[in-house]
Structures are given as C-alpha cells and as structure tokens.
Amino acid sequence: MVIKWSPQQISAMMSASGITSVSHETIYGYLQQERSDGGILFKNLRHKARKYRRRYGSKDKRGEIRNRVSIDERPEIVAKRSRIGDFEIDTVIGKNHKQAVVMIVDRYSKLTLIKKVSHKRADLVSSAVIELLFPLAHWVHTITADNGKEFAAHESIAKAINADIYFAHPYASWERGTNENNLRS
C-alpha cells in the first residue's frame, strides 16, 4: 500500500517525529526540480496537473506603477504651502464603481479642478489630468498622488505638463490632506 501524503503532511510528520524538519516549500521545490529533470515523483501529488503556487510572500505585479518618485524627494517648499502650483490629485469612485471623478487641488490657493471619467483606468485618468492642467501648465510645479494604479501613466502627465510627480506613502492619506479634506470644506 502506497501512502500519498501531501508535502504539508510530510513536513508536519517530520517535525512531530523529531526528525530534522523540512518545510513543505522545500519539498514542493524538490518535486518541481525532479519533474523538470524527467522524474515521476510529482505524479504522486494529489493535484498532478497544476504546478504548486506559493500563496504568501508574492507581490501583485499587475498594473504596477513604474518609476515612482517618493514624496520624500519632494522639495521642502511644497510642504510650506507658500506658492501656487503644487497640486494634489485623487480619484473619487462613483456608485457601483461605474464612473469616477478626477479631482485636482492646489495646495496654496485651494483651486479645485474636477473632471468626470467613465472608468478609473490609467489612460483615461491621465488624459483627464492633462486636459485639466494643460491650460495652467506654466503655473504647475509639482503634483502629489496616492499609489492608486490609475496613476500608472504618471510619466505621460509629467511630460505633457512639464511638472514633477511624487507619490505619497501607502496608507498615508494625510500627506495629501488638502485633497482628502477638500470635499468636507
């Protein structure tokens, strides 16, 4: 009789028996290597057809924002709120995620620019931002955004407006407080 234990069961049994413990990840790795070398041990796995996928420690790479510049590199003058042209940007999602609004606020003058977009996609958001800020391009110095994937096309915005774009730290909405609190005032 052949016992078909899972790598998790083998690892747990080794630990319980006092044998040198091997993680189930190591066992899966060995089986994958053995399979690529022409072996047949992988056929004893319960799920022969699917390759094992780690369920933790991986990062979602879809729609990753490339070439982000951290808010830590933003000039000090922006924090002082002493000049016109330092903008904060965000999107507000509509009911049932059907539509979105792009909202841009100047940190000094509180000038607010709003444009409705049909979806919260990077291409639509970037074209809305360019349309809103292009007439003011000679005033725009910096734009600060959150880490939403809708700002993945930030490089095209920066090129069209000739401004520097910075990204706040994740889950730090206070770093863009003018924009976050603008609807309340």
Write the layout of secondary structure elements.
Elements: H1 7-17, H2 24-36, H3 76-80, E1 86-93, E2 100-106, E3 112-117, H4 122-133, E4 142-145, H5 154-161, E5 164-167, H6 177-181
Parallel strand pairs: 1-4, 4-5
Antiparallel strand pairs: 1-2, 2-3
Helix pairs in contact: 1-2, 4-5
Q: How would you portray this structure in words?
A:
The mean pLDDT is 86. The chain has 2 domains: 1-57, no CATH class; 71-184, Ribonuclease H-like superfamily/Ribonuclease H (Nucleotidyltransferase, domain 5), CATH 3.30.420. Helix 1 (7-17) packs across helix 2. The protein has 6 helices and 5 strands. With 185 residues, the chain is of the alpha/beta class. The N and C termini lie far apart (74 Å). The radius of gyration is 25 Å and the shape is elongated.
Number of strands: 5
Rg of Cα set: 25 Å
What shape does the CA trace take? Answer: elongated
> How many strands, which pairing sense, and closed or not: the largest β-sheet?
5 strands, mixed
* Beta-strand proportion: 15-25%
Mean pLDDT level: 86
Strand order of the largest sheet: 3-2-1-4-5
- Percent helix range: 25-40%
What fold name stands as the CATH topology of the largest domain? Nucleotidyltransferase, domain 5
Give the topology string: H per helix, E per strand. HHHEEEHEHEH
Number of domains: 2
- The secondary structure category is alpha/beta
Q: What is the CATH superfamily of the largest domain?
A: Ribonuclease H-like superfamily/Ribonuclease H
